[in-house]
Design brief:
79 residues, 15% helix, globular
Length: 79
């Protein structure tokens, strides 16, 4: 028996500095929501080719700031 995938939840996602361009995505995790936003919105990267996103679970209200390296694909909390 394989483990169940994370059920899709609704998240609001925007770049750290631009809440005016918030999008709603349905994904199974904060990280998956951040990646879906990047694939759809193509936000501008900083000098290190990274994007900082604020991801909020619309049901539970939890919010995370995630920094995604566009070259490496690494995801880490914003510093």
């Amino acid at each position: 028996m394989t483990p169940a995938a994370n059920p899709a939840r609704r998240f609001s996602v925007h770049t750290r500095d631009d809440a005016a361009h918030t999008r709603i995505v349905e994904e199974g995790s904060f990280e998956a929501a951040a990646l879906a936003y990047i694939e759809d919105a193509h936000p501008p990267a900083d000098a290190e080719n990274e994007v900082s996103l604020v991801v909020r679970d619309l049901e539970g209200g939890r919010e995370h700031c995630l920094r995604i390296g566009l070259d490496s694909g690494q995801i880490a909390p914003c510093g």
